[in-house]
Amino acid sequence: MRKYGFSALVAAGLLVGGLATGSASAADLGGNCCADLEERIAELEATTARKGNRKVSLTISGWVAEQVMWWDDGVENNVYVVGLGTTLSSHFKMTGAAQISPGWSAGYVIHVEVISSDSLTISQDAPIGPAATLVSGLPGYGVQLLQSYWFIKSDHLGKVGVGLQSQASDNTAILVDGSGSLVPANWVAFEYNSFQIRNADGTLSGITWGSNGSCLGGGAIGDCNGLTQHVVRYDSPTVGGFSVSASWGEDDMWDVAARYAGEHGGFKVAVAGAYNELTGGQTLNPTAATFEYFQAGAYVQHVQSGLWLYGAYGTNEFDGLAGDSDTYYVKAGLRQRWHSLGHTVFYGEYEQNDSDGALVNAEGATETEFNLWGVGIVQEIDAAAMSLWLSYRNLEYQNDLGDEYDDFQYVKFGALINF
After folding, report:
1. Do residues 76 and 215 both lie within one domain?
2. Model pLDDT for residues 67-113, shown as the tens digit of each residue
3. 1, 121, 162, 381: which is deepest, by most CB within 10 A?
4. In total, how many domains does the chain have?
5. Cα separations (Å) of 197 from 13, 22, 158?
6. How far is CA 76 from each of CA 171, 205, 399, rounded to the nearest angstrom?
């Protein structure tokens, strides 16, 4: 189809079908026969997905990802089948572009998530998230628009995009992780976000694990300002491995980011940092104060041995109000190809969040601390554009009131296949 085009193949198929009906029909190739053939081709083309039109391309891509999760909160334990959560969920993306002139192009992105069970909203009482239900009482499943924007790009001046999209500071610290373990292990509270912390006496505290960190604008604990927004965004060309980005969104959000990636002396290196502000009194920031967030991430890998190290740091402030916090995340491991399937990745991770607690919960604590540690393995299957993972995590929580809480632990096995 790429070589001859859809119309030519349809015409050939219909012509062969006509010849097969007999010599009398085959001999009548003039008059209404060809007019009818063109009409039938036009009808089929109108109802068939194509690779864009003659000027603008269309590419459909995405992935499907699901996992099985066993969890234990100190009193209760269970097994859930869940997705990866908003922004990492199964999805399809339609992208395209057209050349305006040499060095100039225009294009678009439409990104739709298909959420079977959102890992950010599951809890002790909600094995399927989102927790919404249909009229029939069956679990409600979500389909949501994550991105929809157009852009104009210059090879020398950069790209400007307008619409619903990732702002400059979205996932800035996360995306430098080149280990192959980014999806199953990062600093966002996927899987455990909505689970309640269990008191030492076995009762539920009413405090959720994901409430630590005072994140606004999406994100939970890490990656604050992590949801796509309606913005105007600029991305510079990459020069010597360096690039910068900036974006602005209505009512009001603005941010800037800088990135670098390169290879030096047998080491792969990637570094990125971003700063953003969310004006108080708007949907993403209902507080009375401006929310400020700085994040940075770095990744280093020794190419020959496969040893790697990744780290991220995030800090937020509420312009004079209590609720500030600092998040530290570090992950290290080995990435090697020992067989024909693909690379195998081993990793260990640790995360800590320190917060003054005032905007985290209503228990009266002025300081809280959250800790996470975990280990895991990822197996890439190159022939299927697929990754499999198995991981374990343990979560701890404490505050300055001296209260005691049970740890939360879970094991998950999952897979992601790209298309």
Report:
1. yes
2. 999 999 999 999 999 999 988 999 999 999 999 999 999 999 999 99
3. 121
4. 2
5. 64, 77, 46
6. 33, 14, 23
